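hey all, quick one before standup. I had two proteins in the batch that finished overnight and I want to keep them in one place so we stop losing track of which output belongs to which input. First protein below, input sequence then structure tokens straight from the run.
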Amino acid sequence: MAILTQSRLLAKNLMKESTRDKLTGFAKQAKGRVEAAAGELAGSSRLKVKGAADQEAGEAQKRIAELKKARGR
């Protein structure tokens, strides 16, 4: 566990803020796609909506990364 935490801290310090935001956005979108698909299979409208919301949050995070990259962060 400590090694994983150290790896995350090292990656956090080595990556630009915009790159971290972009990766976070991609991860949120992927999570949302999985949740939406699971909701579709299970017939759960709550899970489908949560998945769609996560996908939108991921898209927003990626746009924030683009803005930060344009500002040089």
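OK second protein, same deal, sequence then tokens:
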Amino acid sequence: MNITALARLIPLFALIPSLAVAAVGKTTNFTTEQKTQIEEIVHQYLLAKPEVIVEAMQKMQQQQMQQTQKTIQQTQETAPKFANALFLNANDPIAGDPNGNVTVAEFFDYQCGHCVHMASVLENVSKANPHLKIVFKEFPIRGPMSEMAAKAALAANKQGKYLAMHHALMGANQPLTAELIFQLAQTAGVDVEKMKKDMDDPAISKTLKDTYQLGQDLKLFATPAFFIGKTQAPKTIKYLLGAMEQKQMQDIVDEQGKA
């Protein structure tokens, strides 16, 4: 466990004696004096053996990592069942070759640092593979501004300006605000007033709702999340989570193209 992680957990350590009493107290009634004595005993024990705390936290981290790996494996196994929703949803913005035999679908959030990094990687992969289809899954999970940005991008798509708006938002290099989103739209050549009206279109809300549901079905818990496979009836779909280098993604594209 690194120092930063340990520092974040220090405030919790002070609660351990009280938590110990509470746990035992579920089945036993203690007087106030007895509870105080138990808390003091636990407190002194932890002072004498602080390594117990580290061991407990390491065990917790290990269990969390195992659960994460289990979830990733489940997503990998179930992804082909959702191939049509991932690769062929007509409401999703796309780039590259609409009829490409291999598709990369990305779930992302405009306020996600790794998503911002991957925007250029995905663009380069697209340029290097003219027959690759890219599907953009707006997945705003980082608060109201993320959702507003996603709605703005989908509204810009109605004007044929999705990619321009998408790249503008990804390249903002500062926290998003309503004012900034509208400024970026104007810079991207979007009719801002029309965009504002279209952002309230129920169809856009439904697109986001459908993507949220798909994310839940796939047990997604972070962004960016990539799904790569044959566009039509894929036997396998590769699931990748987080940032990566262009070569890593290219290797998966090549691999899935041969599947």
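Flagging for whoever picks this up: The beta strands are 94-96, 102-108, 132-138, 225-230, 237-241. The chain has a mean pLDDT of 88.
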